[in-house]
Predict the 3D structure of the following.
Amino acid sequence: MTDEAPDVEFTAAMAVADRAMQAILGDEAVWAEEAARTGAAPLVWPPRFGGAEGRAGLLASLAVAAAENVLVSMYEARSGAPEPEDPRWRARLRCVVDHLDPAADDVQIMFRVIARAVDRADAVLVRQFGGVKGSRRLTGKREWTNWLKAEEVDRAVRCGLSRGEALQALGISRAGAYRAMNRAKKKQQR
C-alpha cells in the first residue's frame, strides 16, 4: 500500500457505506431469504437508481463493487486461496461483472442481495452525511479517488508483471497511472 486513505469526508462516507453493505452481503439469512423468494420482479444489470437525488452514480458504483466482492468471496471460498494480486485477474473479474446474465436465477438472487445492501448503505449515508436539506456533495472525493488509483497502480506494479503489462491491465491511461504514482511518491516524501 502506498499510504493511508486521505482524511476527508468522502473517505469516511465510503467506510460507512462499506460497513453497512458488508452487514447485508455477509448475512447468510439474507441470502437464504432472497433464494427462497419466488416471483420477485427481475432486476436489471447494471443497476439503475432513479430518484436518488444526485446519488445514482455513487449507488451504481457501490452495486458494481458489491458484485465484485461477492465474486471474490466465492472464488476464495472455492479455491481456499486469497484473490490473486495480478491486475489481469481483476480486469477479468470486472469483465465478468459487466456481463452478468440477469436471466440466470442465481444471478437474480445476487442482484437482490446487492440491492438490499446498497439500500442499507444509501440510508446510512443519507442519515449520516445528508445534510440539513437532504443530499449534498461530500468533500474530498477527488483526493479519495486519487488515493484509490494510486493504490491500484502500486499493487499492479508490485505483482511481478512488467510495468507496461501491469498498467495496461488496470484499464486506466498510462499517463493517469504515472500521475497517480507520482502523487503517491510526493506524498511519501513529505
The chain is about 65% helix and 0% strand. The two ends are 16 Å apart (CA to CA). The mean pLDDT is 85. Residues 15 and 70 are 18 Å apart (CA to CA).
